[in-house]
Queue: 4 jobs
Job 1
Amino acid sequence: MKIIIGVMGPGETARPEDNELAYELGTAIARQGWVVLTGGRKFGVMEAAMKGADDNKGLTIGILPGATGEEVSRHAQIRIYTDMGSARNNINVLTSHVLVVIGMAAGTLSEVALAIKANQKIILMNQSEETAQYIKKLGSYRVITSDTVEDTIHVIRDYITVHSIA
Amino acid sequence: MKIIIGVMGPGETARPEDNELAYELGTAIARQGWVVLTGGRKFGVMEAAMKGADDNKGLTIGILPGATGEEVSRHAQIRIYTDMGSARNNINVLTSHVLVVIGMAAGTLSEVALAIKANQKIILMNQSEETAQYIKKLGSYRVITSDTVEDTIHVIRDYITVHSIA
Amino acid sequence: MKIIIGVMGPGETARPEDNELAYELGTAIARQGWVVLTGGRKFGVMEAAMKGADDNKGLTIGILPGATGEEVSRHAQIRIYTDMGSARNNINVLTSHVLVVIGMAAGTLSEVALAIKANQKIILMNQSEETAQYIKKLGSYRVITSDTVEDTIHVIRDYITVHSIA
Amino acid sequence: MKIIIGVMGPGETARPEDNELAYELGTAIARQGWVVLTGGRKFGVMEAAMKGADDNKGLTIGILPGATGEEVSRHAQIRIYTDMGSARNNINVLTSHVLVVIGMAAGTLSEVALAIKANQKIILMNQSEETAQYIKKLGSYRVITSDTVEDTIHVIRDYITVHSIA
C-alpha cells in the first residue's frame, strides 16, 4: 500500500509563495517515497506540488473534477476522472492519509471542513493568523500549523507511524 | 418550477436556539410557498427546519448521505438517497436557490465553502462575530447576515425576484 | 413521505411509442398521488413522463446530471442539480420506490443494472424480447414485464402495500 | 502519464475461470508497464487482477465504494476512497483508458453500460454468447470480444497507439 499525502490549496488564485512552498513540499514528499495527491488541475498549489514530486521521481495522483483532459496538469501521472465537480473534494479528503493545506480559497476551505468532519489529520501552512485560529478552533486536535517543510514531513512521519499506516 | 430554500446547520451538535430558529424559518418558508431543502437527517437544524415546514403544509426535501431510511427525519417528505456521504453536500448547495445557514459545524462549513465556490447566495444566522467575519471576507458579496426570520424572508424574496427565479 | 416512482428510458433516442407510453404512465402516476422522478432532461422518456404528470397536477422531480438549467425539462418541478454526470443514475435508482423502464439505451441499461445491484423493483415496458429475457435472467425476481399502464400501476400499488411504503 | 487499464468483473460471485483469467491478465498488464484499475475490493475479478499485477511489480489502483479499509484488497496499492457506493462505477469507467470485462454481474453490467455511454473501448472476455451479442449490439464499434490475454494486450496496445494515449 502506498502512503498518500494530499496537498490542497488555491488553483488560479494561489500566491507565488504558496506555489513555491507547494513545489518544495512535493519534492520532499517524493523523497520520502510517498505519493502526492491533489485536485489535479494545472494551476496553483495543485500544479506546483505535483511538479515538485514529478521532478523528483515521485508518484502523483490528480483527482479531477471533470471527465476530460482539459485543464489537467501534465504532472498528474495518475488521472482519476470523477466528473463530479467540487463533490470530488470529499474523495481527496478521504483518500489522503494526511492533508497539507497551503494558502486558502473557497474550494480549499471545503476540503478542510470535510477533512475535519471525516476526522482526518490536517497540517496548515502559509495561513493568516485569523484563518489558522478559526480552523484550529473548529477542528481541535486534528489541526496543527507548521512553518517549514521539514517540520511538516516530521509530523506526517510521526502520524503514519503512530497510526500504523503502511 | 419550485423555489427551493436550503437550510443548513449542525445536526446532533445544534444548540437549542439554532433548532428554535430553524423551526421558525421552516415555518416562514412554507408560508411563502417555497420548499425547504436540508441534509435530511433527524437531528438539529435539518430536523427542525423540515418540521417547521411540515407542520405548516410546506413541502420538504431531504438530500440524504446514505442509501437507507436509517436516521432519516420523518419530516423529510421527499427523500433523495444519494449514498455518497458528505459529497452530497455539494448537491444541497447546487440545488438550493438560496442557502440559509443557522449555527456552525464542520459539515455546515463545507456547505458554506462549496456555496461560495458555486457562487450561491448565503444568508448567515445565529453566528458568532468571528465566524460571520471570516465567511464574509471569504465569500464577499455572496454572503450576508440576518438577525430575524422576517429579514431573511425579505432578502430571499428580493433575490429570487432580481434573478427571475420561478 | 411521498411515494416516488422512477421512470427511466432513452432521451434523444427515444421512439415515438416510448414517449407516448411515458406520457400516459406519467399521467397515471400523478392520478395515484405519486411523484414522478426522472433524469430531468428535456428529451424523450424523461420529458414525456414528467409532462404527463405535470399536465395532471402531479409532482415531478428531475435528478439532473449538470449544475445549470441547460437542457432541463420545463416539466421538472423540483430540480436536483447533482453536477455528477452519469453517476447521478445511482441516485435515480436508490431514490425511486419502484422503477419503470420504457425503451432502452446505454444510460437506461446502467440504471437497470444499478437497480438490480441495489435490490430494487423494476418493471419493464416496451422492450424487445431479447432485452426482456436478458434483464430478467440477470435480475431474477426483481424484474417483471408489463404490457399496459394499468397493469404497471397495479404492480406498483401491490408492491408499496406489501412493503409498507408510506 | 500512466496508462490505466480497468479490469471489471464480479466480486463474490466470480467463477474460478474468471479469477484465473483475471490473474493472468493482471500479470500481462503489469508486464507492459501499464496500471491495473479495479473496484478495489478483496473478491473475485478485482482481487485476482490486482494480485496478478502486484505479484509482477505492476502498479494497482482500487476505486473503493466505501470510506474505510474494510473489504479492501491487500493488492490495491493505491486506494481511492470514494464513499459513494456503486456511483463510483462511473469513475472506474472514465478513468480507465481501456476496459476489460471478465465475467458478468449486475455491477459489472452497470460499468459496461456507463462505458458505452461514455464512448469508452470495451473488451469482453469469458462471456456467454448471449451476453456478448447483447452488449455488442448496444455498444456497436466500442465493444469487441477477445479469447486470449495475448489478443487483449494486442488490442489495447493498438488502441492506445492509434489514440495517442501517453
Job 2
Amino acid sequence: MIKQLQQQVEKAIADINWVQEPTGLYQPIDYVLSLGGKRIRPVLTLLACKLFSDDEKQALSTALAVEVFHNFTLLHDDVMDRADTRRGKPTVHKKWNDNTAILSGDAMLIKAYQLLQQAPADKLPVLLDLFSKTAIEVCEGQQYDVDFENDLAVQLPQYIEMIRLKTAVLLAAALKMGAIIGGASLQDANALYDYGINLGLAFQLRDDYLDSFGDPAVFGKKIGGDICCNKKTFLMITALQTASEEQRKELLQWIGCTDTTCHEQKIKAVLKIYQDLQIDTRCEEAIRAYFEKSVGSLKNVQLAENKKDILVKFANDLMGRNK
Amino acid sequence: MIKQLQQQVEKAIADINWVQEPTGLYQPIDYVLSLGGKRIRPVLTLLACKLFSDDEKQALSTALAVEVFHNFTLLHDDVMDRADTRRGKPTVHKKWNDNTAILSGDAMLIKAYQLLQQAPADKLPVLLDLFSKTAIEVCEGQQYDVDFENDLAVQLPQYIEMIRLKTAVLLAAALKMGAIIGGASLQDANALYDYGINLGLAFQLRDDYLDSFGDPAVFGKKIGGDICCNKKTFLMITALQTASEEQRKELLQWIGCTDTTCHEQKIKAVLKIYQDLQIDTRCEEAIRAYFEKSVGSLKNVQLAENKKDILVKFANDLMGRNK
C-alpha cells in the first residue's frame, strides 16, 4: 500500500506544471522536486488519512504542501551548509547560484501554503495552525543545529530537542494533518503525532549511527562525515560525556583539528574511541527505545489492528528492518 | 488620521515579544522590525478597513502580517543585492551573516502567515488566497529585476510589469485585505486594489526619478546609484529607446564601464544624455498619469467623498506633494 501511495505522490507532483514565467524562479523548483527521494512525509499524510477514511485523495494537496515545504528546507539548508550535492545531483545553489536558491526557496514556501489552502475548508484553520507551528519549529531546529556546531557543552537532552524540531515534528505533523483530514478524533490525531515524533527521533539517531557504523555500500554516503565536520551527534555527545580524561583530551584534540588532510586519521581515531566506549551499543539502545515508544503510541488509537499494523510495518521499513 | 494609524502599527509591533529561544533566530527579526520605516503597507490595511467599518482593530493582525512579509522581502533582497545598510543601519547579513539572514527571513515569512491566521475566520480563505498570490508575485518581480540586470533589450512594458509585481501588488493587496475585513463589496475592494497598483507604480517611478533628478539633501541617498549599477529603470529604458545613434553608443559605452573609479564621470555623462533627451519630463508625465489613474479608481467606490479624500491625500503625501 505504501508503494501505491508513493506513486500517487509522484504522479501528483508530475501532474503539476511547476515551470512558468519567470523560468529563472520556477525551473529550480521543478528541478529539486524531480530529484525524487522517498516522499516519506507526503506518504504519511495520505496513509494517515486513508486509515481513518476511505478517500485519501482529499489529503493530496496537503501531502504535497508538506513535501514542497520539506524540499524548501533542503534547498535553504544546502545553501547554509554549502552542500554540493543532494540525491547525487548538484544542489540548486551549485547548479544556479545562491540568490536563485534563496529566492526559489522562498517561492516554494509560499507554494506550500497555496497547496495547503486547497485542503477541505472546514479543516483549514486547524491545518494552518499546525503547519505554521511546525514550519517555525523546523527553523528553530536548524538554528539550534547551527548554534551547536561550535558548542562543546551540548548535552543529550538539548540534542534530542534539536532533532525533534529539525526532523521529527514535520513527520509528526504530516501524520496528524492526514489524520485530521481523514476525520480522526483529536486524541487519535495526537497519538499519531506522538508516533511520528518518536519515529522521527529514532530515524535521526539511526542516521547518526549509520554515519559512523554503517556499511558504506548500503549507507550511500562516505562513513565519518559527521566526525569530520565536528557534528554534535548523539555519538559525539555521549562519547564526550562518558570518556575518560585521556579519551576526552584526545577527542577534543581531534575536534580542534579541521585540516582536511588529517580527515582519514581523525575518523579512524574517533571511531576507535566510540568503539572503546561502546557508543554504538548505547546508540542502538536509544534507537530501540524511541522506536518502541513510537509504536507504543498506537496502542490506544481507535483503529483496527490490521490498520495499526500498516504503521508498525512502515516504522520497521523506515528503520531498515525489513530489508 | 494616518499618523494615528502609524502609531497603532508601531505600538502593535512593539507589543509583540519577538525574541524567544533560540535567540539567534529571533533577535534579527526584532532588529529589522525595530528599524522603523513609514509602515506604509500596514497603515493602508488599517485605513482601508476603517473606511468601511468603524473598527480598524480587526485588521491589525493582517496589517502586521503585511509588514512582517514586507520586511522579510527586504531581508532576503539585501542578501541578494549585497546591500550593506538599510535605513541607516547595517543589514542583517552584515550585522550577523548570510545564513542568519536566510533563516531568520524564512521564519519571518512563516510568522507573517501566523499573523494572517488571526484574521476574522469568515474572511480567512479569501485573505489567504490574496496574500499568497501577492507573495509569489513579489518573488516573481524580484526574479525579473535580477533577470533585467544584464538585459539591454528590456522594454518599458516589461519594466512596468516588473515593478508592478515587485512593488505595487503588495500595496494593492494591503489595501484590498483591509477593505475586505472592513466589509467592503468585492467591487469596492477591487477598486482600492487598482488605486494601490497605480499608486505603487507612480511611487516606484518617482523613486527612479529622484535617484537621478532628486535633491540629495531631501532624497537621503546619493544621486546616481541606479546609473552606477546599470539599473534598467524607466529613465534608462526610455533613454535607450529615444536616443540618437550617437547617444545610444555613448550610453552603451557607459553601461559597459563598471569600473568604480569612473562612477562620477559616468553619472555626469548619463545625466547629461537624460537631460538632452528630456527623460525627466517624460518620467514626470508617466508619474502624473499613473497618479491620476490611481486616484481615478476611487470614482466609483461606494464611500462618502470625505472618506475618499483621505485616500487622495494619502496618495499626495506619498508622492511628496504636500511637503
Job 3
Amino acid sequence: MTADHGFVLALSGGIGGAKLALGLSRVLPPGTLMVVANTGDDFEHLGLQISPDLDTLLYTLGGIDNPETGWGRRDETWTFMGALEALGGETWFKLGDGDLATHVERTRRRRAGESLSAITDDFRHRLRISSRLLPMSDDPVRTRLLTDEGWLDFQDYFVRRRCAPSVRTIVFDGAGAARPQPDFVAALADADLRMVVICPSNPLISIDPILALEGVRDALRACRAPVVAVSPIIDGRAVKGPTAKMMAELGMPVDAGSVARHYRDILDHYIIDEADLAGVGGLDAATTVTRTLMENIADREALARVVLMAGQGV
Amino acid sequence: MTADHGFVLALSGGIGGAKLALGLSRVLPPGTLMVVANTGDDFEHLGLQISPDLDTLLYTLGGIDNPETGWGRRDETWTFMGALEALGGETWFKLGDGDLATHVERTRRRRAGESLSAITDDFRHRLRISSRLLPMSDDPVRTRLLTDEGWLDFQDYFVRRRCAPSVRTIVFDGAGAARPQPDFVAALADADLRMVVICPSNPLISIDPILALEGVRDALRACRAPVVAVSPIIDGRAVKGPTAKMMAELGMPVDAGSVARHYRDILDHYIIDEADLAGVGGLDAATTVTRTLMENIADREALARVVLMAGQGV
C-alpha cells in the first residue's frame, strides 16, 4: 500500500474493529481507507437513533474515543444519566453527555430526511477524519437473537442482559431487503481497490450482518482484490465481548481456525496470533502469524502494517 | 391562608413567576398550592419538546434551579452543547446536560401517548414537589410575534434575536381551540379555592396566553375567590426580560398601573412596589404597597405572605 493510488476497504464492528481501522488509517496515505460499519446493532432508545458501531468508529478515528471503555467519548460527563434517573427514565443503556449530541443531531437529521450515510459523512468531516466511513446500508437491519430466554433484540441481549442468555440462533431482520450502501458496492468492483480487510470483530454479530446483505458475499467472492481477515481470537479466547461464548453456544470450536472456516469462501489471507498456531491446520487461505493484541497505538499501526503486507503478498 | 383546608391557585410564566411560586409553596401548608404554567413558549428544538416555563417552575420548586441564570439547573454541565457544536448542530438555544434529560424523557413519553399534564405531574412527584404543577393546556398553543422584522416564533424572538426586534402584535396560535387543563378549570370553580395569584410574570407573553384560553377569563371574572396580581414592574422597569420594552412598543405606559389596567376585569387586589406608588392612581382594585424585588428566599417568602394576606383581606 505504498502505491500512490488505490484504496483499502475495511469491514468493521465496534471496539476491536475500530482499533485496527485506526491503525490502518494511520499507516495508509490520508483518504485511502474506506471503513464499512455494521449497523445491525443500531436501535432506537429514548426516541434517539443510536448506531453504536458507527459511533465507536467515529470517535476512534476522530481521536476522541474513551481509552478506558473502548466505547463512548473521552472527557465525557454523565450529568444527563443522573438527571434522567431522577426523573424515572431508563438508564440501562449508558449515554454520556457528549455522546448524546451525536444521537440527538443524527436523529434530528434522519427525521429531516437525510440518509445515515450522508450524516455519517458530514460528521466524519467535522471530526476531521480523512478516511471514509460508511454504514453498511441506509436501510434498517436489526440483529435479533433466539436465546434460552426467548427472542431478544441485540441491545437487550448485549447491554441489558450483559450477554448472559445462551444463544441458539442469530437473525438479521431486514438484511434480505436492505440495499448495501451504494459506495460500498461500487468499491467492491473498483479497479483501484487494493484490499478488503475483515477487522478482528465478532464474526457472528459484527461481520455477518454485512455479509448477509444482498450481493455482498458474492461480490467479495468475485472481488479481484485480496480479502484479508484478522482473527478476533487470541489464545483461544476473545479479547473482549461475547465472541468466544457465542461461538461455543453455536457449536463452533473456539479457535482461530473456526473463524477462518466461517469466512472460507471469501478469504484469501488470514492473520492469527502467535498463540493460535495449533488451531489453523488445513486452511486454504495463506496465513500470517503475528502479535494481534492491540494495547496501544504502536500495536495498532504494527498490526495494520502486517495486514497491508499480507494483502500485497497474496 | 392559615386555614387548614382550601388551596391557592397561581398563574405563572418562567423566572419571575417561579420565584413567587416558590415563596408561596414555602409559606403555605404542603399540597395547598396549584401552579398553572404558561405553555405558549413551548417549542420543538432538535426534535425535543421543550416547555421552558414548566421546566423553570419544576427546577425552582424542586430546589434544583440555577440561582445565577434563573433558568436551567444548578450544578449543570455543558458537554452536550460543545459536542453538538463540533458536529455542526444548532447551538443558539442552550441546553445543559441535566436539562436535556427533562426534554428527552418528556419527548419520549409524549410520543408514547402521555399528556404533558401527566408527565409534569410525575416529574414533580419525582422531584419531591408537594405543590401541584399543571400546564395551562395539554393542547399546543404557540406565541408568535409580528415585529418590524416580520413574524417570529417566540423562541426565535426571545432567545435567538434576544428580544431585539420591535413588537407590533402578539398572537397565541391555537389558543382558540386549546382546552384549558381540566383540573385548572375545575379549580376555578372549586369552593375550596381561597385565592388566585397572578405572579409577577410578563403580562403580554406569560399571563395573556393563559387568559386567552377558552373560558378562562370568564371563569376568573366569575370566580368567588379573590384574584391578586403582583406587578412585574418595579420603579418603572422590569426586573428581567423584555416586559418594559414590549409594553412600550405596544403603546402601554411602562408603569405598574398599566399592568393592573391590563387585568382590570379580573383583578381584586394588586400588589405594587414601594417605588411605583405614583403610577397606580384610579384603580378599582385594592392595592398593597410592599417591597416586591425577590433577591433571596426570605424575599420570596415575605412577598408570598403579603400576597396571601392581601387575598384574605379582599
Job 4
Amino acid sequence: MSAMERLVQEFSRLPGVGPKTAVRMVFHLLKRPPEEALRLARALEDLTRKIHPCRECGNFTEDELCSVCGDPSRDRGLLCVVEEAFDVGAIERAGRYRGVYHVLGGRLSPLDGIGPEQLGVERLLARVVGGGIREVILATNASVEGEATAVFLEGLLRPLGPRVTRLARGIPVGSDLEYVDGSTIAEALEGRREM
Amino acid sequence: MSAMERLVQEFSRLPGVGPKTAVRMVFHLLKRPPEEALRLARALEDLTRKIHPCRECGNFTEDELCSVCGDPSRDRGLLCVVEEAFDVGAIERAGRYRGVYHVLGGRLSPLDGIGPEQLGVERLLARVVGGGIREVILATNASVEGEATAVFLEGLLRPLGPRVTRLARGIPVGSDLEYVDGSTIAEALEGRREM
C-alpha cells in the first residue's frame, strides 16, 4: 500500500470521515508545506504521551487531577455521573454546575459486552461510600442504553444514602413544539412545573 | 495550550473539519488504543517523506514517474491538462482515457497572485514543443477561473501545432433536466449531437 493510501485509510478511521473526505484531506496536505502534516503528526504523538484519565473522576487531563477536580471551589458533595469525558465539556459549557464529575467511560451495553465491570461501577460506589456526597446526578444520555445505565446505577446508589437524581426531560430550549417528537412531549407533560 | 487543544487546532485545519468535528476526533482517539493515533502520526510523516511530484507530469507519486507516466501502454501523443493531481484520479476512475497527463497545480487567479509562472505553463509548453503530441485536452474545471485558464492555454498551445480540445459541457448522466441549471442546458443545446 502506498503512503497516500495508508494515510487515506488512517484518516477514514476518524469519526465522520469517509473515504472521499479522507482523500480530500490527503490532497490538501500535499498542497500545503510539509510542516503542516508534521505539526499534526506531532500533536497526535503528544496526545498519546500527555493525556490520561484524571485519578479522581476519569475525565481527560495532562495533570494528575483534571481542571474540575483540581479546583478547590467545586462542591464535592455533588457528583454528576456522565457516560463520556466529552459530556463533562458539554455540562461545563452550560456554566451552571458547581459540583464534581464521575466519568463512566461508556454505558451498559450487553450486546457489546459492556457490563458493570467494564464501566468501573465499583470505583463509583467506592467514591460514594467514601462519604460526603449528598447527591448523585445521573447524567447519562437520554437513549435506551443511557436510561438503562441510569436505572441500574440508581438501584446500587440509593441504598448507600445520597439523593439520586437525573437530568430533566423536556422540550429543548428554542425549539418549536411542531418538531418535537411525541415521547419528549409526553416527558415534558409528565414533568411540567408550576409557573 | 494543552495537547488536546493543539490537536483540535491541527485537525481544524483539514478541509471539511470544523472545531466541533475536531473535538469529536480527539475524543475518539482518546477512547481508542494509543497505537491508532500513532499509526496516523506515522502515516503523516511517511506522506511528507515519500510523496513528491512525478518528474514528467506533476502528479503525486512515490517513484520518479507516476503510475500513468510509468505505464508504457499509455498513448504519449494525447495530453490531458488538469488543474490538480486529484483530477487525474477522477479521470482515471472513469476508465476511458488512455493518454498521459499534465498537472498545472492550480488555475489562473490574478486576485490570489497565481499567474502563468506559478502554474509552470512553460513546462507544459516545453512538453508540447518537445514533439509527438497530437492533441491537448484542456480538462480544467468548468468554473470561471478554470475556463479562463483553458482559454489562456489554448492561445499559447494552438500555434504550436497540436489539436486543442476541451471536455464537453452538458447534462450530467443520471440527472433530471428539472434540476439542471440554465447555463448547463444552454451549453448542452449548443453542443447537441446527431443521434
